[in-house]
Write a structure and sequence with these properties.
The chain is α+β, with helices and mostly antiparallel strands and 550 residues long. The chain has 22 helices and 21 strands. The longest helix has 24 residues. The protein is globular, with a radius of gyration of 27 Å. Keywords: Hydrolase, Protease, Serine protease. InterPro entries: ClpP/crotonase-like_dom_sf, PDZ, PDZ_sf, Peptidase_S41A, Tail-specific_protease. This is Carboxyl-terminal processing protease. Pfam families: PDZ, Peptidase_S41. One of its GO terms (biological process) is proteolysis.
């Protein structure tokens, strides 16, 4: 006869469900939900409690109730829309730190190569840099626990090295050419994360800013970058949002306000609840309200990236260059749950100034939505603008009467096809393995003296990746079981040299050095800097309706 004694999880489950019911009642009261809906919610939650009680007590095998509930929550939310999501407590702090713009830790960029944690670089101003920790150091033990050769993951590293500011962690490092481990007692501190990864002058007039996400500090970083570029003589601006998945809507709105004059509409949003119906307008003097702007987008530019690009396009403030953006027009509100988990609930749709929703279609087929990139690739969209068909019922007009479309991302004013001629399967395997990271770390450590007095500009203009360096990289590939392919290597040799130079530049200097080099093979960027005459024409054009009336 089976034991029916209450376990800890059985005791905990009704408490969790009671909290959920209380939360549901509170939400209903807060938003003045009709009484019938409140009763439906109570009945549904009671049904869930019944089922979980039976499963927990009588199911033939042992179950983890929390895991089962988490799984059920995720499947339930998938039925709503693709962007409402649940983040378990164990992941919530890591995910949130990516948007906060800072976290508490020891201040290193790390990589895991062959089951060993390598310091890619100590972060500037962080406690690890102050103690003399170096690129290439291997983290062997943390607080006495072995971290090498034990299947360590990124999550393991975060959990061990991050912690409250002021707390101490003991890290044993192995340094190349030193026999004994070096023990460091590191006092954790606030570590800033940057979302403006590059800012530099392309030439005497054109400034370039790379924005990789929209976090709590992005707007301040953007203003600082704009100011510095203007001091250097910038008259034309490239904002690179390629691959930027979005983030905080407020950051995008504030950035747009620095570029738009008057009281231009930036974005509006509408939800079921009146408090989520809002419009954002430009209202303050901006740092760059005059002068041509080009915004770079591609299939990886989403959410807040599309808000910024849409505001520039619909207000005829500049030129959008690249490929059709992702198509996310839903607004999420983060809600902290009682156990430390987080719910990101879609509470509104946003609309660009012309009134278009750029949310791409979605239905119950979650996998089809997730595989949209592959579908676009197969249909030829990355290579030809003619493959993209828009619904005439979703036609809108910019401030000056240009036609734009809703229903699935921001279509650029100037389309640039994806260039795959220089890449190859071998190079992709080489860079997706540990080979490149390991080679770059070793090369920089062995050649530091060579670069001591070399500026970023000198590195960009004068340094060349030699054939010997490529051969050495190939050997690292062989060591990591990336079989050499002579045909692919010869096809992609010049491309490979640029990639290696960019990664070495990042290790020696910073992300600006990386992007300055790698942009030499970025087809969207290369086209954009030739198009400022077109960008000026858009900004200076007369309203098309006024021309028609004349």
């Amino acid at each position: 006869m089976s034991e029916t004694k209450n376990t800890k999880s059985q005791i905990r489950l009704p408490i969790i469900l009671a909290l959920a019911i209380s939360a549901g009642i509170w939400i209903g009261a807060t938003f003045a939900e009709p009484k019938g809906n409140q009763n439906d919610l109570r009945a549904a939650l009671y049904k869930l409690q019944e089922i979980m009680t039976y499963v927990n007590r009588d199911y033939v095998d042992s179950v983890n109730s929390n895991e089962l509930i988490d799984y059920g929550i995720n499947k339930m939310l998938e039925h709503l829309d693709p962007h409402t999501s649940y983040i378990p407590a164990k992941d919530a702090s890591i995910v949130q730190s990516q948007l906060d713009g800072e976290f508490d830790g020891i201040g290193v960029e790390f990589g895991i190569i062959r089951d060993t944690i390598y310091v890619v670089a100590p972060l500037t101003g962080g406690p690890s840099e102050a103690l003399g920790i170096q690129s290439g150091d291997q983290i062997i033990r943390v607080d006495g626990e072995t971290m090498a050769g034990v299947g360590v993951t990124n999550r393991d590293v975060f959990e061990k090295l991050r912690g409250p500011k002021g707390s101490v962690v003991v890290v044993d490092m192995k340094r190349k050419n030193q026999k004994d481990l070096i023990e460091y007692k590191i006092t954790r501190d606030k570590i800033p994360q940057y979302s403006i990864n590059a800012s530099y002058m392309v030439n005497d007039e054109i400034g370039y800013i790379k924005v990789t996400r929209f976090a709590a500090t992005t707007y301040d970083e953007f203003k600082e970058a704009l100011y510095d570029l203007k001091v250097k003589g910038m008259k034309k601006l490239v904002i690179d949002l390629q691959g930027n998945p979005g983030g905080y809507m407020g950051a995008a709105i504030n950035m747009a306000d620095e570029l738009l004059g008057g009281k231009a509409l930036i974005v509006s949003q509408e939800g079921k609840v009146d408090q989520y119906n809002q419009k954002a307008f430009a209202f303050k003097p901006g740092l760059f309200e005059e002068g041509p702007i080009i915004v770079l987008v591609n299939e990886g530019s989403a959410s807040a990236s599309e808000i910024l690009a849409g505001a520039i396009q619909d207000n005829d403030r500049g030129l959008i260059v690249g490929r059709r953006s992702f198509g996310k027009g839903l607004v999420q509100m983060p809600i902290d749950l009682s156990d430390g988990a987080e719910l990101r609930l879609t509470i509104a749709r946003y609309y660009t100034p012309s009134g278009r929703s750029i949310q791409k279609p979605y239905g119950s087929d979650y996998e089809a939505y997730e595989s949209d990139f592959m579908n676009r690739f197969k249909h030829g969209e990355f290579f030809s603008a003619d493959s993209i068909k828009f619904n005439d019922s979703l036609k809108y007009e910019t401030v000056k009467g240009r036609t734009v479309y809703g229903g699935g991302g921001i279509m650029p004013d100037y389309f640039v096809p994806l260039d795959t001629t220089m890449s190859s399967a071998y190079v992709n395997r080489l860079f997706n393995s540990d080979s490149n990271r390991e080679f770059v770390l070793d090369y920089v450590n062995e050649n530091k003296a060579k670069f001591e007095n070399m500026t970023v500009e000198q590195y960009y203009s004068d340094f060349t990746v030699s054939d010997a360096m490529l051969n050495q990289l190939v050997e690292y590939g062989n060591k990591n079981k990336v079989d050499f392919d002579a045909a692919d290597f010869n096809k992609s040799k010049e491309y490979l040299k640029i990639l290696v130079k960019a990664h070495v530049g990042r290790q020696l200097y910073d992300d600006s050095a990386f992007y300055k080099v790698v942009n030499d093979i970025n087809e969207v960027y290369l086209q954009a800097i030739k198009l400022f005459d077109e960008a000026e024409k858009i900004a200076m054009a007369t309203d098309l309706h006024e021309e028609e009336e004349e």
